[in-house]
Design goal:
TIM Barrel; 52% helix; binds ligand C2E; alpha/beta; Alpha-Beta Plaits; Beta-Lactamase; binds magnesium ion
Length: 681
């Protein structure tokens, strides 16, 4: 209760109760006053009437008031008057306030005189004073008395009525009336009134209290909600990053006091992006909510769950004694999240990877602990989907290495230190040059040549793929624009370049700036690109195709090789991965597969390129199979733009590379050297 009512509320309640009590006391006091006044008024009126009656019915009243002798007849009359209902005493005073007659002394005249004398002697002076005042002001004074002497009623009125005749005050008549019955009936009436007023007051107070309480309750709910929002992620109901950080602080404190161990598990959904991109954000939100629900069900009481952003969750596992405790939870979570999620009739599989670090084992500070759990997650993800990894010290070095490489790549991009090489593409006969594939090269000032297979994925992860991709497209188009008309250029596109949605514009601008006709540009995409994010990619590819740009599927045969992709999107070219080309010689089955791929592609009107042609035998086999286009070290290595075969009219195509090209990449692709020599021989 005290939690519900704040100190301020309590003060408000006390004030209201005090005000209510004060109002009640004031009402009771006012009623008492009114009641008194009412009684006095009634008493005054009846006293005046009685006095008038006395004045009218006693013939020698003037004489009596003047203190003269009272006749027996008057005495009898007065005795009878004493019988008036409720009247229990009357006294007559002369204008000076001297007592001249009292109803207590209406005995025989002589006795009466003596008794009167005694009464005069004992009469309280204030009575005389009241009588004198009434005479002086020719008015009526009324006093109410409660609990008088033994022979007096419990409540009675004492009225002093000036007896005036012809404008002259003859004296004052004191009329004492028993008011017990009247007071009782007035009191009863007022009590009823008080009851009604009290009731109304209570009802009003009750209504007021009800509304006040309701307002307070709503206010408390709003405060509660604000507090909740400040600490939780609204979508999933898990803690937010700040609260999670606080929880770690608390866990550290607990560890210091009682040695209770704990671990932080960082968790990332494996295919969330695909779900989000292909099914929309509301489906993504739904998945996140269901993930949180499952996680809440999986962790123990005392563990904390947080959503750190996007599809990233974290668990603070408390009561950890050994690494196996963490492994067990991680495995449970991975199993739980690998079950499919039901999304309005559709079932999707998302899966998760987890990295964990233990406090006091891997780190003794919060930031470090989180960082190490994150590194472990990174490792888990790089090992594949649905993996769990503990932090180990080598991860730091790897990350450091990655960071340095990223920084250097950024510098290389900004400093225009990247180069674009071109590898020739020949007709299936291996004789006529049809174009080049543009391949990016980075010669690091300290490390030397960094292979694209290393820095392209890094650029994809760090967002540098956008500037890199833009640069490659512009350079490739600009170079190709200077080549003879019949030569085209192929540019590799990575999945990340499709995500921003501005790819079409970038391609259009590169074509526009270079003046290269769209039909001379080809783009190469890999199957993995189609597997994620299919709709968006297909729509972008259709737009490119509509512009006239040729589309090729690269590295065919390395991924799932789903023929569905060939059917869903009309590729212009299919590039058979070099693993096939190079294994044809060792395994006749491979040769058979290559032939089938070529014939299948042809039946779909798709041209076929064979990558990695290194030997004359491979070239011959491919030619027999009807391959449309050949690419490989046998025919030409990737080389800088100033040493490309079409510039060198002296040297015939078909494996006779420019000598400049050989020099351009010292040691790099020297694997081809013996082959070239073999071919030359
Ligand atoms: P890719 O698109 O399949 O390119 C062909 C790769 O095979 C090139 O490797 C090329 O040098 C190599 N190659 C060509 N002929 C032979 C041969 O006869 N034998 C052998 N062993 N290899 C041969 P590179 O240049 O190292 O590129 C590797 C991958 O990096 C490329 O594979 C491509 O996926 C990616 N890449 C290269 N440049 C870019 C680029 O500008 N943008 C993007 N997004 N990716 C690029
Ligand atoms: Mg390629
Ligand atoms: Mg390839």
């Amino acid at each position: 209760m005290m939690q519900f009512f704040s100190r301020r509320d309590m003060r408000e309640i006390v004030l209201w109760v005090a005000a209510l009590l004060a109002a009640l006391v004031a009402i009771v006091a006012a009623m008492r006053h009114i009641q008194q006044h009412h009684l006095e008024q009634m008493a005054g009126e009846s006293a005046v009437q009685w006095t008038r009656f006395v004045a009218g019915s006693v013939p020698d009243i003037e004489l009596v008031m003047a203190g003269g002798a009272v006749t027996d007849q008057t005495l009898d009359h007065l005795k009878r008057l004493r019988q008036t209902e409720n009247l229990f005493r009357f006294r007559f005073y002369d204008p000076d306030g001297d007592l001249v007659l009292s109803s207590d002394d209406l005995g025989p005249v002589a006795d009466g005189e003596a008794a009167l004398a005694r009464e005069r002697a004992t009469l309280q002076p204030e009575r005389r004073e009241d009588a004198r005042q009434a005479a002086r002001e020719a008015t009526t004074l009324v006093r109410l008395h409660e609990g008088g002497a033994a022979h007096e009623p419990a409540i009675y009125s004492e009225a002093y009525v000036a007896l005036v005749r012809d404008g002259r005050v003859l004296g004052v008549v004191q009329v004492d009336v028993d008011q017990v019955a009247a007071a009782n009936s007035v009191r009863a009436a007022f009590a009823r009134l008080a009851l009604v007023v009290g009731l109304v007051l209570h009802v009003l107070a009750g209504i007021g209290a009800f509304y006040w309480f309701r307002r307070l309750r709503n206010q408390r709910r709003a405060e509660e909600r604000v507090r909740y929002l400040a600490h939780h992620d609204v979508l999933s109901g898990a803690l937010n990053r700040a609260s999670f950080s606080d929880e770690i602080d608390t866990a550290i404190l607990r560890h210091t006091r009682s040695g209770t161990g704990f671990a932080v598990l960082c968790l990332d959904l494996d295919r969330f992006k695909e779900v989000n991109d292909s099914l929309g954000h509301s489906a993504g939100d739904d998945v996140l909510r269901q993930v949180a629900q499952r996680l809440f069900q999986t962790v123990r009481q005392g563990d904390q769950l947080a959503r750190l952003g996007g599809d990233e969750f974290a668990i603070l596992q408390s009561g950890v004694r050994q690494p196996e405790d963490v492994t067990r939870l991680a495995k449970r979570v991975i199993a739980k999240l690998s079950e499919p999620f039901e999304l309005s009739g559709q079932s999707v599989v998302c899966g998760a990877s987890i990295g964990a670090a233990m406090f006091s084992v891997d780190a003794v500070e919060k930031e470090d602990l989180l960082h190490k759990a994150d590194l472990a997650l990174y490792r888990a993800k790089s090992e594949g989907r649905g993996e769990f990894s503990f932090y180990d010290a080598s991860m730091d070095a790897q990350l450091q290495e990655r960071r340095t490489l990223t920084r250097d790549l950024r510098e290389a991009l900004e400093g225009d230190q990247l180069e674009l090489y071109f590898q020739p593409l020949y007709e299936g006969d291996g004789e006529s040059l049809v174009g080049y594939e543009a391949l990016v090269r980075w010669r690091h000032r300290l490390r030397g040549f960094v292979p694209p297979s290393e820095f392209v994925p890094l650029a994809e992860d760090t967002g540098l793929i956008d500037p890199l991709g833009r640069w490659v497209l512009r350079r490739a188009c600009a170079e190709a624009a200077r080549w003879p008309e019949h030569l085209s250029v192929a540019v590799n596109l990575s999945a990340a370049q499709f995500r921003n949605g501005d790819l079409i514009e970038i391609v259009a601008r590169a074509l526009d700036e270079s003046g290269l006709p769209a039909r001379r540009l080809g783009v190469e995409i890999t199957e993995s690109l189609l597997m994620s994010n299919t709709e968006q990619v297909i729509s972008a590819l259709r737009k490119l195709s509509a512009m006239g740009v040729r589309i090729a599927m690269d590295d065919f045969g390395t991924g799932y090789s789903s023929l569905a992709y060939l059917w869903r999107f009309p590729f212009d070219k299919l590039k058979i991965d070099r693993a096939f080309t190079q294994n044809m010689e060792n395994d006749p089955k491979v040769s058979l597969i290559v032939r089938s791929i070529i014939s299948l592609a042809h039946s779909l009107q798709i041209r076929v390129n064979a990558e990695g042609v290194e030997t004359k035998h491979q070239l011959e086999t491919l030619r027999r199979h009807g391959c449309d286009e050949l690419q490989g070290y046998l025919l030409g290595k990737p080389a800088p733009s100033d040493v490309l075969p079409h510039l060198d009219d002296d040297i015939a195509p078909g494996g006779m590379m420019s000598s400049h090209a050989q020099l351009a990449l010292p040691g790099l692709e020297s694997k081809a050297e013996p082959v070239r020599q073999a071919v030359a021989a």
